[in-house]
Structures are given as structure tokens and as C-alpha cells.
Amino acid sequence: MSARIAISALALALLPLASSNLAWAEDSAEKAKAVKEDGGKYLDADGNPTYKIENGTVDWYTFSGYRRYHSDCHVCHGQDGTGSSYAPALANSLKNIDYSTFLSIVAQGRKNTGSGKENVMPAFGDNKNVYCYMDDLYVYLRARADGVAPRGRPPKHEDKPKAAKDAEASCMGG
User: Fold this and answer.
1) Burial of 70 (0-12, 13-18, 19+ CB in 10 A)
2) Which CATH number covers residue 142?
3) How do 57-58 and 41-43 pair as beta strands?
4) Can you say whether the dihedral through the CA atoms of 53, 83, 74, 50 is positive or negative?
5) Number of domains forming the structure of the chain
6) Which of 146, 107, 140, 123 is nearest to 27 (CA)?
7) Could you list the residue range(s) of the whole structural domain that residue 144 is in?
8) pTM (2 decimals)?
9) Which residues, in sequence order, are CB contacts of 84 under 8 Å at separation 6+?
10) pLDDT tens digit string along 18-58?
11) CA 37 – CA 40 distance, rounded (Å)
């Protein structure tokens, strides 16, 4: 019986933590809510790119971000942004960094040392396969961080908007 009491006490002690995580998820998803659409790209109230997922259909940029993530980022950061022994889970990291910080880290790289371990994120500012799609990557990882994009390839997505085609051609030099 004392084990049951100890487990109950532990569960009660952890309840506020679970509630605060749930509150964070609700706050984060509310902050990420698309309030404006510009050429097929959705923006939040602060003007940052965000996702729009309705009835299992993701916007083009979330889908594109999924594709780009799995072509260049998953080797270090794991499938679906879940992390690896080599690099952190970006689905968790985006809970603590804003859009401009994300862009800076991806473009310029970052070096972390501490706890007897060194992590180096290389700069991708010269890699057009990453740089031209940083908004897409951000949108996808933001949706993963908020728990609204499931693991794996999104089964349905919006068509690629003309603005995305034009931006891609301009950035990639085509």
C-alpha cells in the first residue's frame, strides 16, 4: 500500500508540470495561428511565417519544409525533428527560439561547448538547398514543435503557390 501512496504522491507532484506543458502547447499553438495569408504563405500576428493545417491537409510551406528537412537536416537532427545522439531535437528547440534566431543559426551556424561535449551546427548560408527554403524549414519545425504536424510525410498538402514557384526560381537562379 505504501508504494501506491508514493506513486499517487509523485503523480500529484508532477501534475502542475504536466499542466504547464499543456498550457505552453496551447499558448504556442495560439501564437502560431495564421492571421494573414500572402501568396500562399501564412503569417502569424507578429508577421512570422507559420503553418496552416486543416482537416489533415498542410499548407504548401509545411509540406516543403518536411521535404527540405528530410533532404538536408535529418541526418544530424533525426527523423521528424526528434533529435539524435549527434544533434538536438529541433522540434523541441523551436519551443525556445524565435524566427530571427532560427534564421541566424541556420545561416551562420553555432558552436556549443559545455558538459565535456562539443556540438557544432555548420553554417548553411551558402547552401541554396537550405538557404532558399529557410521559411519552409521553420514552418515545418514550428508545426512539429506545437504538436500539430504528425510524424512522417504529410498525407495531403495544398498546391504549390505561384509565389513559392517564383521565389524558388529567383533564389535558385532558374
Assistant:
1) middle
2) 1.10.760.10
3) unpaired
4) positive
5) 2
6) 146
7) 33-172
8) 0.80
9) 76, 77, 78
10) 444 444 445 666 788 888 999 899 999 999 999 999 998 99
11) 6
